[in-house]
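Re: your question from the hallway

Yes, I did run it. Sequences:
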Amino acid sequence: MRNDSSRTVVASSAAGWPRARVAKLTGLLALVVFVVAFPRMAADPFILSVGVIIMSYAVLATSWNFVGGFTGYISLGHASYSGLGGYATVLLILHTGVNPWLAMFLGGVIVALLAIPIGIASLRVRGASFVIVSIALVLILLLVFQSWGSFTGGSNGLRVPRPFGDEVLRPEQHERFFYLHAVLLAIAVLCWWLIDRSRFGTGLKAIREDEDKAQSLGVPTFAYKLVVFVISAFFTALGGGMYALWFGFLDPIFQFSILTGSYMVLMSLLGGIRNVFGPILGAVIVGYAMEFFKAQYGDTQIHLVALGVLLGIVVLFMPDGILPALRGLVIRFRPQATSIREVTQEELTRDATGSREESATDRGTGTKEEVSG
Amino acid sequence: MSDTEMQPRAEPLAGSLATVGLSKSFGGVRAVDDATVTFLPGKINAVIGPNGSGKTTYFNCVTGMIKPDSGSVSYRGNDITGRPPHRIAQAGIGRSFQLCRIFPRMTVLENMLVSVRSGTVLGKLVSARQRTDIDRARELLTRVGIDHLEHAEARDLSYGQQKLLELAGVLMADPETIMLDEPAGGVNPALIDRIGGLVRTLNSEGKTFLIVEHNMDMIMSLSDHIVVFDRGSPIAAGAPEVVQDDPRVLEAYLGV
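Structure:
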């Protein structure tokens, strides 16, 4: 019996696995080479600055995907954490004079701590209610940061001290921040991947599929959701802090904007929330498209219309995102290695040990039998 | 195995699952009404009753999915009333759902690896694909007869196969008590026999069963002890032969 089950594994996996792994590693290597080489290839500082923006979106979308991708809880209000991260970083620099990078890290920790009570309150509700709670938080923070002028600079905004000296020129600034964002992205991706393959991650994905069922199997669902929510808030805050240091100016209306949160959701959904690289692909496409439309059509709101259309297309034709859709195409054009074989009533009723040998042989030929289970 | 009496008793037996005065109302409807029941450890217990008699709500109160309004649930001498479902699962009570529930977008093998019995925080961070867990998952899949489907997404399985997967998934945590909500619902007769056979074998290995079921043939041939519910309350309990001839049971079912 032991022998038989191992044969099944080989039959269904030997054909695809090693090649898939080689393809994945090659793709990853190509991505790393591209990221490292990008600043050299960028034609001018503007292109480089677009690269920084896309990188920043990739960090934010990947951070969002800790909650959205694993648990299926769609937060439209993740701008709360990027905004808080940005303000925490800058206010720490201004009031305590700590090193900007330490301030960014501390900002992340502060936001993570704030995310604990927020998570406890908001993760009790599911579906649409959770979405609304997440939006409400952004709006509250927007009002607070606009009104509390003495501390936050209010609607006038807050000028961010440069982390690099004045001798570092703009293009050089862009290049450094491009790489810094890339490092932050790599850490977030690594963390996401580690969770994805862990027991913790399996529990989280079970929550996405069926929360009550997961709990009935012993998964402490609330604790799991809360932990991943805090991790998500932490990375989102780091992303917000780093962007603030690059951009040099904070305004509540842009920091606590529903749009920023929506972009994170759109990018992740577009690329595919079940894949570690989904949000990054989404960030590249949406980020590029947005900058393109802004550059072409200036101050009009056409880029928002384009994004709306894009979201509609994704929901209608690729509900799982681009990466799963591509994967589906690859599988369709590959010779069918295995297909799911239905089991007949006779096989089911037959004594388990007696039927093993027979079913193992027709498994090899891949005959499809009448559905009857 | 303990040679417990077959008579229903008001006070809980040592080591058994029991409820005392369990009640749950939804609005004006008393779905479960003062249910005092003791199940026999090491036996196949059945809960039967007409539609709407509160069986599933009772199940949900016992497993923590619903908080009862009053009354208590005890298991192996511990009061587990109102504990969250995952704590009850970790205490050793596994359950299936009325309309089979699996994780549709995960593979069969991943479905098997969800269940958690205990473990440290560090243990949660290691790869989900531990050799021992995977071996155990494959063993159980082989046992229920769907081991050849381990790489398939669960949603691609037929309903009967999903039922088998759900049962195997519950077994992963090695629960001492297994609660099945309509295991024969919506599956063909051959598979009903197969599930019945699995229940019998597992019971002979020491598992206690609590089965809610409408299929009388299955219940009568399988169970050692039957509790009959009507309008939220247990109205009779005993061995199949005894319950079968009980006038109160006939009245509940036939309305005579």
